[in-house]
Write a structure and sequence with these properties.
Elements (H helix, E strand, L loop, with lengths): L17 H20 L4 H4 L11 H20 L26 H20 L22 H27 L5
Helix pairs in contact: 1-5, 3-4, 3-5
Length: 176
């Protein structure tokens, strides 16, 4: 066991305002991923449990670390932050972890990116455009914070579905 406690998830209010609703659902999905990893040891978190896919729970958390980094640091704030796990030589390096990859390091990096994302978003309105040069691949328009929040919710929700299947195959645990 990793010694971690089960993360707390709070379902967002059904009557919250737009920003609180968006932030609430993003936090809910962030914590859902943490719940899917809770109680597993490093070996279990590195297990590619749904062959032929090499996807792992640890890889998903590393990937979401990169996603937080990309959308908040680089698109929203134009920090030009370097990738955390991937490189030009290994564009899927977030998913390709070695036996030395640990939950402790991965979890700390992921939580640090989440904390920084919250800081960057706190002083901006939902209509504020990102400072980064990245534009929508079809329309060429910049991204506002509202779009980034919705995209992050979608990204976590999709990968939480993957995490649910991976977790069930690792130790039989299911749940929402």
């Amino acid at each position: 066991m990793t010694g971690m406690t089960t993360p707390e998830r709070n379902e967002p209010s059904t009557v919250a305002g737009e920003r609180d609703m968006l932030e609430g659902w993003l936090e809910f999905h962030r914590e859902t991923l943490a719940v899917k990893c809770a109680g597993l040891d490093d070996k279990q978190l590195r297990e590619a449990s749904v062959p032929p896919s090499d996807l792992t729970l640890l890889g998903l958390v590393r990937h979401m670390t990169e996603v937080e980094n990309s959308w908040f640091r680089n698109v929203l704030a134009d920090e030009k932050a370097a990738p955390v796990y991937y490189s030009e030589a290994d564009p899927d390096g977030d998913f390709h972890h070695g036996e030395d990859a640990t939950w402790e390091e991965t979890h700390a990096a992921w939580r640090a990116e989440i904390a920084h994302a919250r800081e960057l978003a706190a002083s901006r309105g939902l209509d504020d455009l990102g400072d980064g040069p990245r534009r929508h691949r079809i329309t060429g328009e910049p991204y506002n914070l509202r779009w980034i929040y919705v995209h992050m919710i979608e990204e976590y929700a999709r990968h939480n579905g993957h995490a649910d299947l991976l977790r069930e195959r690792v130790d039989g645990v299911t749940g929402d």
